[in-house]
Specification:
By secondary structure, the protein is α/β, with parallel strands linked by helices. It has helices spanning 15-26, 55-58, 64-77, 140-149, 165-176, 200-203, 296-314, 348-352; strands at 6-11, 32-35, 81-83, 87-92, 96-101, 104-115, 119-121, 130-131, 137-139, 158-161, 183-185, 207-209, 212-219, 223-230, 236-239, 242-245, 249-251, 283-285, 324-329, 334-338, 341-343, 355-360, 364-372, 375-384, 390-393, 404-412. It binds flavin-adenine dinucleotide.
Length: 413
């Protein structure tokens, strides 16, 4: 069945999708729909039962589920239509979406579509960890769904693999349910989150083991232990009854991968310009689909900014995408960057406010350079650690070539 068209359809009701939708309505755009596969809106914060969420958005400290409910209520109050328990299973030119729900298959169309499908952690299989295949091995996301939403306790003494912010989210989740992680393992010499966070695990009775690799998971039906190797020493055994894999975030790109949109090989997310516009100019993308992983507040703020560009695009006031420079990068140190195109016409104030967001494969010190041939257009020193967001301000439009390509490079210190 074909339903009437919307002005804007948004796929994914996480913080970024809800922010785009609410702001579009606030700006006066009619007929805005958000399509969400889960039975409630709010995205990942729905199952992060801890704080801090909401300072930027509501100027108060909230836990994830309360924050998610507020975002959803605000969207509905502003007149956003929410289609819950509905999965978008296909996208096509002219803003055509194929939806699937208990009611069956449905097609809708919208003048503009925004893909906000977020990100997820790499599961065990993709991390090539050897050993047996017992029960009790999961990602932080799965742990949070099981505990906060299903009220199930999967283990009592797990190890947590990783040390970026979401690993601390796993630690807090465990503590909330009386689970006492025995160790947190980080393969680098320092933790990935802010240094001060290293004080937390020992305070909570969890060993923090840096420079440590997980070599194997052991157990029969359930996990009975893990083999780890710290630095150059011999491998040793830790008794535990579960393993939580955190971090190693990847874009939730199942929807865009088979679509007509051009993709970034490095991240599997869609190619976008500085207005978050995809290769099909009716499509935009936002949130952690483009830059796994950033905080809810960051994704929400990006969604609000994007709404302004979409409003301008509906009124034919956004710079046309035809004249643009492509940014390429051959540095093995850089995991991904976004945007990959800069439209060189239009309002210079919009472009001046834009930044390249960059992530490194591991901890790196050196200089980032954006070049046009031999000419350096932008540069900055970095002392980056894995998973840290690095921003580099884009040059003024007047300083860019009208077309052609730019190179993003990294010179180690
Ligand atoms: C396990 C985990 C824990 C985290 N903990 C924190 C934390 O404590 N604090 C923090 O600030 N950040 C945390 N983050 C980062 C988190 O990604 C951001 O907070 C924020 O949720 C990103 O918002 P988003 O809108 O980009 O994506 P998401 O919140 O992931 O929302 C994407 C939405 O799209 C929906 N969706 C996907 N595909 C489809 C489809 N085909 N059809 C319909 N709907 C679809 C999903 O169901 C989801 O609701 C965590 C991330 C992970 C993976």
């Amino acid at each position: 069945m074909s339903a009437p068209g919307y002005q804007v359809a948004i796929v994914g009701a996480g913080p970024s999708g809800l922010a785009v939708a609410t702001e579009l309505r606030r700006l006066g755009v009619e007929r805005v729909v958000v399509i969400e596969r889960e039975s409630a809106a709010g995205g990942i914060p729905r199952h992060c039962g801890h704080s801090p969420f909401g300072m930027r958005e509501f100027h108060r400290l909230l836990r994830g589920p309360g924050y998610a409910r507020r975002l959803a209520k605000q969207a509905v109050d502003f007149g956003v239509e929410l289609k819950l328990s509905t999965t978008v299973i296909g996208i096509g030119p002219q803003g055509r979406l194929v939806l699937s729900s208990d009611l069956g298959r449905e097609e809708i169309s919208a003048q503009r579509v925004v893909i906000c499908t977020g990100n997820r952690e790499l599961p065990r299989a993709a991390r090539l960890v050897s050993g047996s295949r017992p029960l009790g091995v999961m990602t932080t996301g799965a742990l949070q769904v099981m505990t906060y939403q299903k009220r199930r306790i999967p283990f009592r003494r797990p190890v947590i693999v990783g040390s970026e912010l979401v690993a601390f989210s796993a630690l807090l989740t465990c503590r909330h349910f009386g689970i006492r992680p025995v160790a947190m393992l980080e393969r680098e010499a320092r933790i990935t989150a802010w240094r001060a966070a290293a004080l937390l695990p020992p305070l909570l009775g969890t060993q923090l083991l840096t420079d440590t690799r997980l070599e194997a998971i052991l157990g029969g039906e359930r996990v009975s232990g893990v083999e780890i190797r710290q630095g150059g020493s011999r491998s040793r055994h830790i008794d535990c009854d579960g393993v939580v894999f955190s971090g190693s975030f990847v874009a939730e790109s199942s929807l865009v991968r088979p679509s007509h949109l051009q993709l970034v090989a490095a991240s599997n997310g869609p190619v976008v310009d500085q207005y978050n516009r995809c290769s099909d100019p009716d499509y935009f993308a936002c949130g952690n689909l483009l830059h796994p992983v950033d905080t809810a507040g960051w994704c929400w703020a990006e969604g609000r900014r994007l709404a302004r560009h979409i409003k301008a695009s509906l009124g034919d006031e956004l710079a046309a995408p035809d004249r643009a420079v492509e940014i390429s990068c051959n540095s093995p140190a850089i995991r991904y960057f976004t945007p990959q195109r800069i439209v060189t016409t239009g309002d210079p104030r919009q472009a001046r406010a834009s930044c390249l967001q960059i992530r490194f494969v591991d901890n790196r010190r050196g200089r980032l350079l954006l070049r046009s041939g031999e000419r350096i257009l932008a540069q900055r020193q970095v002392n980056a650690h894995r998973e840290q967001r690095i921003l580099m301000r884009l040059p003024n439009l007047a300083g860019l070539p009208a077309s052609g390509s730019l190179t993003l490079d990294f010179e180690p210190a």
